[in-house]
Design a protein that fits this description.
This protein has about 260 residues and is an alpha+beta fold. The protein has 2 domains: about 120 residues, Yope Regulator, Chain: A; about 120 residues, Trna Endonuclease, Chain: A, domain 1, CATH 3.40.1350. Helices cover about 40% and strands about 20% of the residues. Strands 1-2-3-4-6-5 form a 6-stranded antiparallel β-sheet. It has a 5-stranded mixed β-sheet with strand order 7-8-9-10-11, with helices on both faces. A hairpin with a 6-residue loop joins strand 8 and strand 9. It is elongated and about 80 Å long.
Length: about 260
């Protein structure tokens, strides 16, 4: 199949605005009308790779997303799910940050359509802005606790069914197997911090023996009076989940030995 034929296939299957430009031996830049929300176009290259034609973003997509978020945030929670699902659905491979789709036979047009769909799906990550990051905080928290604590020793969203049958006083993660269980709370705002303070007071009133740990999305955003009341009753706090992941894991694993 000639390059001219491939270009026509791209135009018929994906968009009439697609153009190919040679950039060397068996390498072509694929210009498409598709772009990120900031106006930066997707980067797509058609090239030979180990004897096969492939489509590649040459690492541009994930690099572009790091302009708005830390690369480590791709490795857990909702963001990781978005990436994993998009690559799996559209049969795209991640090769150390470079996204690759091998072209099967002469099915160039459909391969490009699939590849562009995957890249556009990944742009969803750019909409997980600071205003919406709370939706990923709990996922990131659950992922962290799953890494730190064996499954048989943790219970997510635990409440005491005897004293609190409808779950008003929820513990985000209860870690058992010690003389005193560990109650871990994920705090992403003033309301949740107040609720946790009330929960700890209630557990003490009911005579529970336990240790408490609070992990904040960002402690700096918590009202000072609200934080002060929690500090009076909570054994240990981490001011930020993202910046303290390894410290949190180490602390929890020391407690559960």
């Amino acid at each position: 199949m000639t390059i001219e034929t491939i270009e026509r296939d791209f135009q018929e299957k994906v968009s009439s605005k697609i153009r190919l430009k040679s950039e060397g031996v068996e390498r072509y830049r694929v210009f498409t009308p598709f772009m990120f929300d900031d106006g930066d176009h997707l980067a797509v290259v058609l090239k030979q790779d180990e004897g096969s034609w492939v489509l590649s973003d040459e690492g541009h997509t994930l690099m572009h997303l790091t302009y708005e978020m830390d690369e480590k945030q791709f490795q857990s929670g909702t963001r990781q799910k978005v990436i994993t699902n998009a690559l799996s659905i559209f049969s795209v491979s991640d090769r150390d940050g470079e996204l690759i789709e091998k072209i099967k036979g002469e099915d160039y047009g459909n391969a490009l359509f699939s590849f562009v769909q995957a890249l556009m799906k990944l742009t969803d990550l750019s909409f997980l802005t600071k205003e919406r990051v709370r939706s990923t905080f709990k996922d990131d928290f659950f992922a962290l606790m799953s890494e730190a604590v064996p499954e048989h020793r943790r219970t997510f969203n635990w409440f005491d069914q005897n004293h609190d049958p409808i779950g008003n006083y929820m513990v985000d993660c209860k870690v058992n197997g010690m003389a005193k269980p560990l109650y871990v709370f994920a705090l992403n705002g003033d309301d949740r911090t107040r609720d946790t303070t009330i929960s700890i007071h209630s557990f003490e009133k009911w005579g529970f023996a336990f240790k408490s740990l609070a992990i904040f999305e960002n402690q700096e955003n918590i009202n000072r009076k609200v934080l002060a009341r929690l500090s009076d009753v909570c054994d240990k706090q981490f001011s930020n989940l993202e910046a303290n992941k390894q410290r949190i894991i180490t602390h929890v694993q020391e407690l559960i030995r």
